Amino acid sequence: MQSKTTARFWLSLLLTALAGSLVFGQDLKSFEQKITTKVLPNGLTLLICELPDAPVFSYTTFIDAGGANDPPGESGLAHMFEHLAFKGTSEIGTTDYAAEKVALAKVEETNNAYEAEYLKPVGRDPQKLAELKKASLAAQAEAEKYVIPNQFTEVAQSNGAAGLNAETGLDETQYFWAMPENRLELWAWLESGRLSDVVPREFYKERDVVLEERRMRTDSNPIGRLLEQFLATAYVAHNYGRSNIGWPSEVSQITATEAMAFHKKYYVGSNIVVSVVGDVKASEVLPMLEKYFDKVPGGPKPEDMTTVEPKQFAEKTVVIREQTQPFYIEGYHRPSYRDKDDAVFDAISDILSNGRVSRLYRSLVRDQQIAAEAAGFSPYPGDKYPSLFAFYAFPLPGHTPPEMREAIHKEIDKLKTADVTDAELAMYKTRARADLLRSLADNQGLANALAEYQTRYGDWRELFLQLDRVDKVTKDDIKRVANQVFVASNRTSAQIETEAPAGNAKAGGTQ
Amino acid sequence: MKPLRSIRMLSVAAFAVFSLSALVCPHVSAQQIKPWERIPIPALHEFKPHQPTRIELKNGIVLFLQEDHELPFVNGSVFIPGGSRDESTAKAGMIDLFGQAWRTSGSEKTDGDAMDDLLEAKAAHIETGGDVDSTSLSWDSLKADADQVYALAMDLLFHPKFSPEKLQLAQQQDATGIVRRNDDESEIANRESEKLVYGVDSPYTHQPELATIGAVTLADLNAWHDRSLKGKLIVAVSGDFDPVAMEARLRETFEPLPRVSPLPPHHDVFHDPARSLSFINKEDVNQSNIEIMGLGTDRHNPDIPSLAVMNQVLGGGFGSRLFQKVRTELGLAYAVGGGVGFDYDHPGTFRVMVLTKSASTVDATKAALAEIAGLSEKPVTDEELKRAKDDILNSFLFRYDTREKVLSESVRLEFYGYPANYLETYKAALEKVTLADVNLAARKYIHPDKLAVLVVGNGPEIKPPLDDLGMGAAHPIDITIPQPQQPAGQESKQ
Q1: Nearest to A187 by CA among A282, A61, A95, A281
Q2: pTM of the model
Q3: Which candidate from B328, B333, B394 shows the least CB-CB separation from A149?
Q4: Any domain includes A378
Q5: Which terminus of chain A has a lower count of CB atoms within 10 Å, N or C?
Q6: 3-class DSSP state for residue B288?
Q7: Tens digits of residue pLDDT in A370-404
Q8: Nearest-CA distance A128 → chain B (Å)
Q9: Chain A residue with Cα closest to B289
Q10: How many other β-carbons are positioned within 10 Å of the β-carbon of residue B245?
Q11: ipTM for the assembly
């Protein structure tokens, strides 16, 4: 059995003692001893947190690039690449990589020829198009002869990988799973391999899979459809307004060449943090990890995008009329996570939305009885760039989106004109601390958070030091920010208005 | 910026459990050592899961204490037998209303709203809820507040004061859920596919309607509370506490209660569904949800280890036959998977689901049916067996790698009357599963002629049509939401 005095214990002492920040530095030091960070020559940051409670570890690979980085005309590219990263390398997933490489080049060549004909504005020859399509499919079939499908994930899973998955957000791409600790080196081989040596295998079939994912999440889901329209309306310039999974015409024409170019630009060491949390000893495993992750290409941190969403000066509204039940959402542009008021937005969302004491619950759900659920949340849809503070409500039967809007605006007005109470402010601060403390119980959650804070602030310590900003939020801050941000000209709203089914004369039908 | 955020795009796979592949590579000889096989796998660090202390009181109530001093929290739960499968069909939805109104109403001493104020100021929680076979009350708080929160939780457990306003609030919430239940096609598919196996009036599928939730009264909630509290309660406490003091406190609370009286046993009868094809039309989608359903089994069945391995081969995840064929090879789906379900005390369902674009509905259904039938026609290979077992056994320790998980498992086994060493014997049995066992299980439990197929999708877009499945004309299912009956003498208005 391992000693009970683990890092989590020290950290909990530190957080509960955190009344004044003087004590903090001292306790942070005890936790720091459990964390090792190492920046490799290629710029990649390794972060190891030793929590030997059980013989397991969780990891997160955090790439500082997501859907917002998709080039114009290629929305969905970051996500498409993420799918590719499960297809193996030159060493795994293939029977003969040398031959496969030749076959894959042919796949690109034939696909490019097909696309060129397909995109001809005039004079597209249907017969030629059909022939090119056939040639492209034949090239794919030839390349597939060398594929051992899903071998990468199979090796991981037959070695005990649990919760194996990845997420592509607008700001970042994350890969993660948990494993028995004796597979650490095997994991390092797999993970460093797919970061440095990905092969564009089965790309065009995977594109079909991703189109199915889009149908499931967006096209065939009423809230998914609405949110896509909501964001596309709220943003006029910044990529946060673009579909993260990709517009159908664009995803369906992404090529493997484009995906590999995305990889070359964004999957460089300086753009990657890899965190490992669990039963690992940094002093023992670091040399081994360095050996594997050194393989990741170096290169400069990719330049940041120049686009900044311009100030909104016109209120915008989206109405979807369809046979689904009503829903209302509105959003206001707010600054990014680096803004000095970041914690003030968290305070507002906590006071308005957290639990049955929250203002929106008590007003719309409990007292007025017009909504089943109502809340405000932020940042949405990302946090790296200026985003939105959004409010939504699901009306009770017989109530309408305009009633939701009016009731939400009344609550916003209260924030602008009157101070929140001492009790509300104190509650926010207490809950922020306790929630952070609770989140430490989970290896995977901690791995994600450490990698994210290391990337976003250049220092994982900010995960804890942010409590200092939480403590400094005042009533005046809340009033000031509410007055700055929650104004009509900065608002975009979207709603579903329910239509009766066409030609439905049957009594009592609610479909 | 917060460590945990909400709306994200989860990728890769929709199902939790993953597995192995059916494909054997013809070009590689079995002897060739692959690069990853050269990597050493040392012995795993020694580990014995920390078992909770089990105390059975004289009245039959069982306590579990799981110390964990890493974080300064104390968490507790009381599990109470009896749930929605025990409510009357005429009042379907009663348990859910009970689970909500119990907490929001509060107790004689402290009403629900006051309780909210008190607890949230301490970042503490007390919650109640209803499930298919149980209701529960749980609490958590920082260590410093543990005594006060425990007292409040016990006050709510024994002395609730159900309020008409909070019952009405819960009824409104559930009414909203009912009128919205046909908006999302996956919700329709989940709900209606279960009915194809259990029947529409089964205790497992009877459906709350506006009329049945409207029929629930305060007297029903009080009666349920008084009746269910006589059952065999299980009390589980975990976290940063002194075990001697905690045991004394729990004894003080629960020892004076009368001898527990068990609920009457269920005698439900379960049948395989008839081979059938059903269809629900939804014209605002561009993807079909296909559900292939049959009767599953329960965990007492000695064939469970073989079935678990078989499930891993059929539809467990990335390497499963369904995933390899329908997603990777054909590119017809993002979400595909399934297998034989086993519940603890009643048969689960056999369920395979595929989500595919409208135009490929027939192709995807045929491909999935072929893989299901193929389990008996194309026997599981040695390679498949090894991978399936490696998948399950090498990740087995994630069932007990935290003290919280060990406690949950202990409670589950106690609740359903399984031996405390169930996981150990289950693991030992999994290790012994042979090729013959899996292939026998496939023949015994996979019945292609007893599968009901449900498609939810956009009728006009489904080309080729469902007729091409060769299962006869699709039987339409009416999912119109019934409106409550009007008082006598009034005409229904449209």
Answers
A1: A61
A2: 0.92
A3: B328
A4: yes
A5: N
A6: strand
A7: 999 999 999 999 999 999 999 999 999 999 999 99
A8: 25
A9: A216
A10: 10
A11: 0.91
